[in-house]
Design a protein that fits this description.
The structure is a homotetramer. Chain A is of the alpha/beta class. The first copy, chain A, contains 10 helices and 14 strands. Chain A has helices at 11-23, 107-119, 144-157, 168-174, 191-200, 214-226, 254-261, 270-274, 280-290, 316-332, and strands spanning 2-5, 27-32, 37-42, 59-63, 83-85, 88-90, 96-100, 124-126, 161-164, 180-183, 204-207, 232-236, 266-268, 294-298. The interface between B and C is large, with 38 and 39 residues.
Chain lengths: 337, 337, 337, 337
């Protein structure tokens, strides 16, 4: 931590902070510049957390030099994490494709989709049973009934299944049916939910919040890991910006940035990012080329009748076409699919 | 709802949509322009919700002409809502000042603060017992112990108390101790929590999400009202933008916009918006002048030792000074304080 | 300037940077923390500008502790600047009201407007002769003819006039007709134009760019002042965010932030910020209450026929009503109008 | 154009608008819904441009159904445009690589760079002679001297050259030395400059503004084409968002969106988007995989001494490595390099 003093700060203001630092068992290194004085704090800054140095007299600003996340931080854990979901591994040599409908609508829709996506090479089935919707009048999900169809789909196809959870009750139900829990974008800073998901020990797919910085996202992952669960996979799904041509703005740079800052695997969800199915294939290609560990793709037997997010869902023909295009690219990137 | 077709859409594509609309018991008004054809849908569009018209052949876009929130909408409820919190009314002729520490830290800190803010004219005591924090290593709140201090502070001062809730458990505890529940910015789209807060029937202070549009915010209010609870007060607390000179960007325009679109009261939290206490007084003045129904202000006996958000908390002297400046402005606006 | 090294940076990487700093005649203060080492640079950092320290081996990041703007910086010029435009002073004890049409459309429209705004107490007449428009097919302004009407309006009313300039040619014409040059939001980082406006020595109204940080805005002012022209007035006019209920998001916090960082006067343009005339009065009140030195308001004899920005323009009746509401507020703020 | 009336708008308000439309020689189609009435306008809406329908009594909003750009619009020009720059074609079967230093610093630096990038397969040399810099105290470019080195570099290597222009004077100089003019992000809505660049007839590389929507970007292109110059290449270079891990947020979706809305070629500049050279290779791969027509990459003989944007510049070794990685990907996409 560095404390930057205001120009011409009086010696007594500087001394007061120096003393405070030393009283807490830390060292203060003072550099008196020709315009401003800066004070470097040496030692465990957690000891200072009861003091808001930022508002001491003549302090201009505080600069953190270390990240607040530790367990999710590559600096302290340089080896990449590989997360096992059923018989699938994420973060190793496979570009993992998760696919399925936005919402589980009925048994037929889900089983049909599961069989089709398996045919074209997908590894994990996705499907929402608890749907966070902007309006209370939109379809809210089949809840436990939906989870039971997910389990049945796994039994029939052998594909592991992932489902979003939005409350403690949803977690308690989901752990009985699915292989991986998803924390959605709107709940990325629902810290209560993060801790509960952490306690289950199950693999967690953590979507980035609509307006979360990468730093906040890794701190959200830290909540799960700190609760004893290292099996976290990050999912970039677009951030909110001023641009309206797409539903969100896919932050493709998040892939190399996460690769540099964290050891956790990262996948990309181009369906929610774009909000328009015509753009999903291009963005999937971009994500794999940028080095993502996998993709999450919305597919539906009849997107024109989907109860949620139809406009961004691929038909099976479109999914087949996209998978065919991805295959040689995945190989070029030195992975398998 | 209006369906805009692509330029030169074939007659058969237009007919297919017209038929679909009519089969669902609605009327289709077709306007064939020289470049594009548009189709106006007359009737209850909810009947079409199983059809994603946006992805039918040659459809360019769908334009909604009505808002999805109804109960929170001024169009259908023109009279302003007045919310009663203990003996205080919000949305009437009083500029309601809520003040207190970001986090309840201990009994002394809270009781001291409660007495001081009462002395300078505040109406409601705020204080967090469940703290959503970016890092799992930051102070997370005293939970039920904190709530009991809030209740005690009310007994001593007579001020109603408001506290943030972050889970069903927190709601179940809070209803026993406080007068008003707060849904924080990070949980504004935690729809599960909104419904549970709605079921309590207690007054709810609904903060705007960091990247929530005003439309989404009013839809979040709709969740609470649709659960049977009309006692919702909105709180603008800054949105996330590219600007870093302040912690968030206070969207002061939200005050007149909400006034035009909704009948719900709206207050402003300049402390979280600014993140810097030097700006709190100016922003408080601006909020009242823009027509806000009240303010939420962070105060602390010793901001330099606050466990949460110290840099944006006012000392008691600063709070006194701000209240003195607000008083004539509130009167000028035709309200009392 | 502070250089933060990566964790476990080797001694030789640290030495290399220390040597580089010292070879350039500066001092390096090294603080070796338990996780990271930081290097404080003492002396004029301009001497290092040919070296990109950020990409030296094992450098994590560079933190600037001083602003790059000097002449616009309150730290080095604590007294508030007062700018004289004709017989009007901005930044002193008057809340200066600039009003007029977005675009000068014809002689009648301008003269009528000038007389009306004068009647209700405005101090300066605004009007655009060179209009930056998103589409090439929108009205682009009357250019020099428009300027001549501005001059005539000044002769008739005695009000000083301000007009936007968008090119060197426009500046060369405008200096012959108007009292103050305006640099618009889209040209805030047209550095060529800033320098040319600086050379004229005339008062300059510098609007904030749509996505400019306050730091960039003050650097833009620095260009004008560095060209020898200290007569700069800043104008906050809304920034671009995700919210679409208003045309832009008025950053009301810019008023107290500028007050803390700079000595330049700041006014607010609620018309462009809101884009909707129903919100202009509330936002004007907010701006004055936040401490702004004035306002810029769009008015038009018949907003329903304005060639530019009609929806955000006030009619004369609305302008009169707003001025009446502002008057007691301005007095309450200790200013005159 | 569609006019949406407020709920329960009176018949006389609807009639007034209907009459206005018909008086201007257009047709009005009225659809009276159970909540709101909408009015479709049939005919050339330009005839209504002197009327701000949005502020007529009881009008709720105006919805445009056609884009304001025509010449840049794929709907009216479905064939892709191919732009010829010297002997290089952009928008055809080649992934065009533009490379070079951010700023031309001296003759040696430029010639060395030109020879190196040619060796590794680049097609066009970039280099800035007029540098728009946030601070007036940063290096501003060599101006005409820099242009002369660009010309010399072309003579030696045979590579066409592109240079940013920031004023009419810069355009007048540049046309004598370079093969393509660049309009930078900060000048994307400097409409005066766009028109002047249009008049030259030379190929123009039009960078997207920091906060420009895709719609505004295509309108900026429309200015150039409407001035008689169809040779426009678009360049996505990152937009401004709340994320600070990268200098800007590369909007990779812009590639498929532009492909759908326009016939103009689009390239990507990952160097300015990322601001960090470690991310440039991943983002270059993503851009090509998304379907971009080319890349613009900053390279420098010694990035640690670059006078501008060193941290995002590749060394020659890094450039060689990136080009080797791109080659098989370009082939996989069915293009040559």
């Amino acid at each position: 931590m560095i404390i930057v003093m205001k120009p011409k700060a009086r010696q007594e203001s500087i001394e007061r902070i120096k003393n405070l630092i030393e009283e807490n068992g830390l060292q203060a290194h003072i550099s008196a510049g020709h315009e401003v004085t800066i004070i470097g704090v040496i030692g465990d800054k957690a000891r200072l957390k009861e003091h808001n140095l930022a508002i001491y007299d003549e302090v201009d600003k505080i600069v953190d030099v270390t990240e607040s996340y530790k367990l999710a931080n590559k600096k302290f854990h340089p080896e990449p994490t590989i997360v096992k979901v059923g018989n699938v591994t994420i973060g190793g040599g496979t570009a993992v494709i998760m696919a399925g409908p936005c919402a589980v609508e009925n048994r037929d829709q889900l089983l049909t989709t599961a069989l089709e996506i398996k045919k074209y090479g997908a590894h994990i089935l996705r499907g929402g049973a608890y749907k966070p919707r902007t309006s209370p009048y939109s379809f809210q999900g089949l809840e436990e009934e939906g989870l039971s169809y997910m389990k049945e789909a796994r039994e029939i196809t052998g594909l592991p299944v992932v489902c979003e959870v939005t409350s403690l009750e949803a977690i308690e139900s989901a752990v009985k049916y699915v292989d991986m829990l998803q924390i959605g974008a709107r709940n990325m800073q629902n810290f209560y939910l993060l801790k509960e998901a952490g306690k289950t020990g199950m693999p967690v797919l953590l979507k980035r919040g609509l307006s979360a910085t990468i730093d906040e996202w890794l701190n959200a992952a830290e909540y799960i890991i700190a609760a004893g669960n290292p099996n976290v996979v990050l999912c970039e799904r677009g951030i909110r910006t001023f641009e309206t041509a797409t539903r969100n703005t896919l932050d493709i740079s998040a892939v190399p940035v996460i690769r540099e800052k964290s050891h956790l695997p990262i996948i990309v969800d181009p369906s929610h990012a774009a909000g328009v199915r015509a753009y999903v294939k291009s963005l999937s290609m971009a994500a794999i080329a940028a080095g993502a560990d996998g993709l999450m793709i919305e597919t539906h037997p009849d997107p024109s009748k989907a109860l949620s997010d139809g406009p961004q869902s691929l038909s099976f023909d479109q999914f087949e076409d996209m998978m065919a295009a991805l295959k040689p690219l995945v190989e070029l990137m030195g992975k398998k699919m």
